[in-house]
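Tutorial handout. Part one gives the primary structure; part two gives the three-dimensional structure as tokens.
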Amino acid sequence: MTSGRISGKAAALYTHSIGEFGNKRIFFEERGCFEPSTGKSLDAIGITRALQNEVIPFEKNLFRTEEKLQNSMRILDELWREVHNSSPISQDPRAIVRTREITSMIATARWMYTSALNRKETRGMHKRDDYPTENKNMQYRLIANGIEDIHIRLSSNRLEEKGILL
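Part two.
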């Protein structure tokens, strides 16, 4: 609930900050259900299960290693391409909502795993079997952004106070 509240507040502040320019932004086109080039409909339930198979099991998401995270990232990137390169076959509002849910879940998982790959330590709830201790030199936030290509920016109050933005 806390992260949702913080995210909502940040989104509201950002929207307020862009003011009149908000109407000039370009958004992704709305998508309905999926239809790959083969002409077959993609299985939204199957895609959701494949995503859940990468983010739910403890052996992948709690007991993390670089190898496990990279394997999951390959699968998540493939799911992203599969969804992103599909064409809409239905404009039914329920299909559009389902498509957006799937797209959002995959995007979030890709940000999460990219961040986990870049935090080479164990800290708080983030556990890395290949980096079992906290690294005192990694006291900064990892800010993930991007849709197609995900980028990580380092940020901390200590770095920013010194005028260092990475």
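Part three, for discussion. Residues 89 and 145 are 29 Å apart (CA to CA). The radius of gyration is 18 Å.
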